Amino acid sequence: MEKFYHSMDVTFFEEKPFYSKLEIQGERKQNEFQLWNFSHTGHSLTEPEVTITAGSVNTTTTPEVATSPVNPTSETETKISQTDKPLLVFSRREKIRQEQEPPTFTRKSQDFVQIPEPTETHQGNTFSVPPHLDSSNQEITDINLPIVVRKGVRSGTQHPIGNFVSYDRLSSNYRAFETTLDNTQIPRNIQEALQHQKWAATVKEEVLALKKNRTWEFSNLPKGKKPVGCKWIFSIKYNADGSVTIYKARLVAKGFTQSYGIDYEETFAPVAKLNSVRVILSLAANLDWPLHQLDIKNVFLNGELEEEVYMTIPQGLENPRTAGKVCKLRKSLYGPNNLLRHGLKD
Amino acid sequence: MFVKHSLEGRKIALFIVYVDDIVITGDDHEEIELLKKLLTKEFEVKDLGKLKYFLGMEVARSKNGISMSQRKYTMDLLKESGMLGCKSADTPMDPTKKGGMEEESSPTNKKRYQRLVGKLIYLTHTRPDIGFAVSMASRYMNNPNELHMKVVNRILQYLKGTPGKGLYLAKNSNRNLEVYTDADWAGSIIDRKSTTGYCSYVWGNLVTWRSKKQQVVARSSAEAKFRALSHGMCEGIWLQRMLKELNLSLDSPIKILCDNKVAISIAKNPVQHGRTKHVEIDRHFTKEKIESKIANLEYTPSSLQTADILTKGLPRNTYENLRSKLGMIDIYHPT
Fold first, then answer.
1. Which of B17, B46, B169 lies nearest to residue A272, judging by beta carbons?
2. Which residue of B has its CA nearest to A290?
3. Taking a C-beta distance cutoff of 8 angstroms, is the pair A40, A62 a contact?
4. pTM listed for this prediction
5. Residues 6+ apart with CB under 8 A from A270
6. What percent of chain B has pLDDT over 90?
7. Of B19, B203, B208, the CB nearest to A271
């Protein structure tokens, strides 16, 4: 139990009010305790408690807001409808100084309680509802209702994205592709990837490929040289029917840490202008050309390096034997600026 | 982009490279197969079959055309920015707050702003409808403030309403090259520079567009539009040259459409005019192209001027009207 010390050697306890709690008008300690108890044990609300709470609504409503008609029957119904599923009920502790300050939490009822559609039982209702204040916009002032009841069922956003996208008009084949596109998650870093079997396997495969290729050798870092960082990148490629073709893992070097003239001389990468891609697609649409897509594996991994490039040991490959060493790249890797050119030389 | 013509000069094989992603197309099927084989021999190649997903763009093909969209990219962007549950907007820009972006306001999270705008710029590859709004937002990359962030949020709100919208490249019989050019004269409140906007249609399909602040101040709206016109002409010439390389010729000269009669007269009038002496280079350039029958100038009323959408924030009605002319569809739109 935590203690707080006052300068006058008085001890306050977190749970206990320092001043004995006063019974005030309309307060039902018993109920509060019960509700609190329920919240603790996780039992669902039973009907009797609910009606009592509803009763306390009426007693705690302050006079000036009491004129706005609170419809107890509809409220009770809401609560009963909510008891269908097991609920955890939390309620706000009633304020001690409630009398002096009438609660200012007056809000439109639809924010808090979902009032059910008027049913037959409501037809015989004798409440005189002023025409401008029907049950849909009456004001609820009581904040001591259990929070679940007060807030009603949360609807989330009022503008669900489903209003704007749908797959209805797509062919089943393409729809399947779109769904997998949405469902597959791409890990952000190596730690995340190693937790999934598929991704861990691809990482292993990539490491093996790099080793087989003798991409680097471990060495000590010579003075005056800076190692280039590296990072794992993951991506997914898809089949025509939407199934996943390849889980890709790639080790890339952070080439942006290199500086021109020191680490590399010239750089080039073939990049098509997207404008021309669109032109071609437009022509293909008009002339019924087929469109094929290819993907090149390990494009740049074949060129021998001319410059000396040192790289830090990639994450997931560290072991005590190589501690303090760096990788001296023999062949190219994705990322260093001078490597793009090598891929094209071959 | 690489092209190979077959010996008879009739058939063609095309080959577009984006670092390691390759798209092959053309009507020379043998050559395509040969090319594939060659590539497989040289590199480790994975044949992904029909074009479906290229650089984050989803490509869907039907009998009547090809649609390109960045639906997933948009959704990811909305998710990342936490705007998935926001209220949607009808237009990407508030037309009533024209000069609002120049006002002072407290600085905003610069990194977030730059990242968002960067992503939006990539999104404009299939979304000409947000072209102007994004180009507007990207002018303040260096020192964004809360007001600029609001503009970006508005674009995201608009995207929320239309996440699946994309370009539709339809099959049609039109074999022309049309360029719509427009300018918003003195649109920038700070330096009174104008904004150029053009969009070009190859064979009836929108393929390229641009929204750009002009480098120099224009003294009259005609001058601003005239500059836009020569800009659009350059684009048209590039497209024409590209088509020529593919052995595809056009039926008629490039059609340049402008909604300013004065700008057209300036271009057509060979006499040096006192008020146009400071726009000499553009003037001679356009005059030369027109005289050599490469391009043709035509007048189009403002209501049909699609490039207008790329020069200013428009009210909803006009915006929707012009957007429908961009040839965009939403294959994901709930019916």
1. B17
2. B25
3. no
4. 0.62
5. A344, B17, B18, B19
6. 5
7. B19
